[in-house]
Amino acid sequence: MSNAGQQVLQEVCERLRRGPLGALRAEAVKIVVDWIQRFIVFRDTERNCVDRSTFTIKRCFLEANRRLTERGLVETDRDFWFLTVDELWTLLETGTATRLTRAKITARMRDWDRFHAKEVQMPMYLHKGQPVDLDQAEDDGAQDGVLRGSGTSSGVVTGAACVVRSLAELGRLRKGQILVCNSTDPGWAAAFNIISGIVTETGGPLAHAACLAREYGMPSAQVRNAVTLIPDGATITVDGVTGRVTIDEPA
């Protein structure tokens, strides 16, 4: 634990000791914090084993796709991603690519590319194969210019919205803007050095974007369909406590 972390822990324990059962509660906090620190190390260490095993599985599928390509049964080097394991092995065993198999690959690839480019918003829940809405409907659209979501990092900030649909567009960001995106991962970390706030569509309070927003001390909120509902370049106000995003001025 860093020196700053040790200092914070010491201050917390001192406050606890001044209350009922203070000594006992302070010791309990120390034990829990120590356990968490140990668990974090274990969590990061185990990734090496998981990465090696999943990479081995990926190489097996890549080899299967290479053989299918040589036999003229698939057309691209990523066709195998859009077949189930059983469908892939059946194609290898039979050596025949039916019209149905090719149609499945084409349709699934098209749907994935549209989703990956954030051209469509997939339903969060399905019931008997049909989309259902199990969340409150109040955040489906702006009411009086206000989008209602959930706060993930406290604070209030007003600035220009920069709607970024993919990592390739990250270079559009300018200092002080509010990033509006579907979600983030470690590849987006550089953006947090210049933005003043962030609005995402998914993830919750433990998501990558929310955790980094709290570390950088900036407001963040999660609003469903934010990428579609917030105009690029509009002046918005983000309340990281209530989760409300107000569209102050259009783009």
UniProtKB/TrEMBL annotation:
Residues 174-243 form the PEP-utilising enzyme mobile domain. It comes from the Bacteria. InterPro entries: PEP-util_enz_mobile_dom, PEP_Utilizing_Enz, Phosphohistidine_dom_sf. It holds the Pfam family PEP-utilizers. This is PEP-utilising enzyme mobile domain-containing protein.
